Amino acid sequence: MIYILLFVYIIWLVSIIIYSIYLINSFFTDAPYVPVKNRVIKKIIESLKLKNNSVLYDLGCGDGRVLLEAIKNNDIRAIGVEKNFIVYILTKFFTRKTNIEIICSDIENISLRDATHIYLYLFPKIMDKLIAKISYECRPGTRIVSCSFKFSGLNPDEIIDLPKHKDKMCKTLYVYIIK
Fold first, then answer.
1. What are phi and psi of 57, to 5 degrees?
2. Checking CA distances to 164, which of 2, 21, 114, 126 falls within 20 to 30 Å?
């Protein structure tokens, strides 16, 4: 009986330590981990309009669920970028049996030159930092889908209202196409 209690205590302690590291790490990022709602993921994939051989980047990929859904019915290259190390480790675990590539890095440090599609669910402050990078690195026709937030100063090519729900997040998708 004592061994069971000791085991439970150790699991509890490890969980507290991991969660504390996650919280501390969240203070040093501009984008906390906020998972996209399951009810929205299929709409995100539809709005991306992926084709075979597409190269999809999920910037701030979180747990990788958008990428996992994207590869289900598409022969694409899927790359997730996650800065939060704890979330990155969990995402690597969730996507380990797939061909999804997960990169632990700041978004500004990766090249988007081969992207044909980009998905992001980031705060406007971060998105506005990325405008120049995306405009410079992405080729014409690159399709960008943003959940809930839009680039300030840019008009979206398409606005998709999502099914109404009691939560405040994930109400709109903004679609941009690089000219």
1. -110, 130
2. 126
